[in-house]
Specification:
Strand order of the largest sheet: 7-8-5-10-11
Number of strands: 11
Shape: globular
Largest sheet: 5 strands, mixed
Strand content: 15-25%
Helix content: 40-55%
Radius of gyration: 23 Å
Order of helices and strands: HHHEEEEHHHEEEEEEHEHHHHHH
Distance between the termini: 23 Å
Structural class: alpha+beta
Mean pLDDT: 86
Number of helices: 13
Length: about 350
């Protein structure tokens, strides 16, 4: 199925998105994620809240597009926006206005996934989310150790977290504990792999720093940064180790941290040549090497460098200037990343 996606995208973008919906729920079914995670996936794909209801015992779960739990029973689901699972169970989408092209297939796959989920265990739908505990920076070490043991992770071993959007295309998918984790960027498919792992492809994806089980919350945050630094198709997967401590600094700082150099880099980006020139400076060791990388004359490169230095207020190729430029460059890329944007379904 994954091999079909590229070919079909060239013919019918809406059909391609439909196949991505199928592939997404196939991954979640294989991963045996819980009902809330399945609803989070559906809500993210549809761009509106998704719900699950059962009558015996009475229970309603509603999840928003960002993976957040919604209070209350919500509006009564419309017949055309709901799908029965079994006697006394139903799933639905809470869309305002007319249904979009892929709503039907999202509902169909959600209903199938929840039905399979219900068949795997007792009527009590959602088991404890062990991976959610391991990636929660507020959890205690005791809680993390208990959660790790419950999913077969060894306290003395080191692991990495892989982070990918729900619509990522996988090839050679590794085995390991996985779940869908709610983040400020929406639901993220998280997978735990050993520190040393066999190569695999997931586009887009980020692989976090290696830690013990009590530090997997840190690995998850660095995996999110690495994911947002990926640039498919040229660089579909980023390993946090590639950027070392810079990724760790970005993971700890968060999006709300003010970064003066990154703000100044916005002005550089307004030039048509701005960011490609910064990229060349970061990736090379000298002005002449950067000029060769861009295929421009050395004097042109020097003129651009003078403009960049004047805009930033420091020499970006001398002393700590290189470190400042590199950090600002990564911050700029991360803030403006569109790797987590899902194309909106088209209307038919």
């Amino acid at each position: 199925m994954q091999d079909l996606l590229g070919r079909i995208a060239r013919l019918d973008p809406s059909a391609s998105l439909g196949l991505r919906v199928i592939a997404c729920f196939d991954e979640l079914i294989v991963g045996n994620v819980n009902t809330r995670a399945l609803l989070a996936a559906a809500a993210s794909l549809a761009g509106c809240a998704a719900g699950f209801g059962q009558s015996d015992p009475t229970r309603v779960i509603r999840v928003g597009p960002k993976g957040e739990l919604l209070p209350g029973p919500g509006p009564a689901p419309a017949a055309e926006a709901s799908a029965p699972i079994a006697a006394g169970m139903v799933v639905w989408l809470e869309r305002e206005g007319a249904a979009l092209a892929n709503d039907a297939i999202i509902l169909e796959r959600l209903a199938l996934a929840v039905r399979i989920r219900q068949g795997r265990g007792p009527r009590e739908v959602d088991n404890r989310r062990h991976l959610g505990i391991l990636t929660d920076r507020e959890a205690s070490d005791e809680e993390r150790l208990a959660a790790a043991g419950a999913i077969g992770l060894v306290a003395s071993h080191r692991y990495r977290v892989v982070a990918a959007p729900l619509f990522a295309v996988w090839s050679g998918r590794p085995s390991g504990p996985e779940d869908v984790i709610g983040t400020r960027y929406g639901p993220i498919h998280a997978l735990v792999i050993p520190e040393t792992y066999d190569a695999f492809e997931a586009s887009p994806s980020g692989i976090g720093a290696a830690t013990t089980v009590v530090g997997l919350h840190h690995s998850f945050r660095t995996a999110l940064v690495a994911l947002r630094l990926s640039l498919p198709p040229a660089e579909p997967q980023v390993l946090a180790d590639t950027y070392g401590g810079l990724v760790e600094l970005l993971a700890e700082a968060g999006d709300d941290a003010w970064h003066r150099d990154a703000e100044c880099l916005d002005a550089v980006a307004r030039h048509a040549w701005g960011m490609e020139t910064v990229d060349a400076l970061v990736m090379t060791q000298s002005v002449r090497e950067a000029a060769r990388r861009l295929g421009i004359h050395h004097s042109t490169m020097q003129s651009r460098l003078d403009t960049i230095a004047a805009t930033l207020g420091f020499n970006p190729i001398a002393g700590f200037g290189r470190s400042r430029l590199g950090t600002a460059y990564l911050q700029h890329r991360m803030r403006r990343s569109t790797v987590l944007d899902l194309p909106a379904p088209s209307m038919r």
